[in-house]
Specification:
Layout: H1 20-30, H2 60-69, H3 78-85, H4 104-111
Length: 115
């Protein structure tokens, strides 16, 4: 995994419509040592929320978002550090990525729908 998928919620060119609660939950998770998995690798067959399986992969868009926004980057999250140790992605793959949101404010401004 070396780039976010083309419809990653952290990709600025994608227009998501998340509830404010869901957007805040995602940011809360990735800044508090929880994993955030790529939506393409989560099983949504039984629920709208989805189920993480043994085949689920970490969201590379979230990895890059943390690199862009948080001191310590993705290594500030224990689950993403584990992803590094398990070679799910490599530090060499990480870079400042302009296609991914550059701040929490920008993410919330763009992905939250206005009812």
């Amino acid at each position: 995994m070396k780039q976010p998928c083309f419809d990653c919620p952290f990709n600025k060119s994608v227009r998501y419509a998340l509830s404010p609660e869901k957007a805040h939950d995602i940011l809360e998770a990735i800044t508090h040592d929880k994993a955030f998995h790529c939506h393409k690798t989560v099983d949504y067959s039984d629920s709208h929320e989805g189920r993480v399986t043994s085949d689920s992969k970490l969201c590379f868009g979230a990895v890059l978002f943390l690199e862009n926004t948080v001191k310590g980057g993705c290594r500030s999250n224990v689950m993403f550090r584990l992803g590094l140790m398990c070679k799910e992605f490599k530090l060499d793959d990480l870079r400042q990525d302009e296609s991914v949101y550059q701040s929490f404010e920008e993410f919330l401004e763009e992905v939250v729908y206005s009812p």
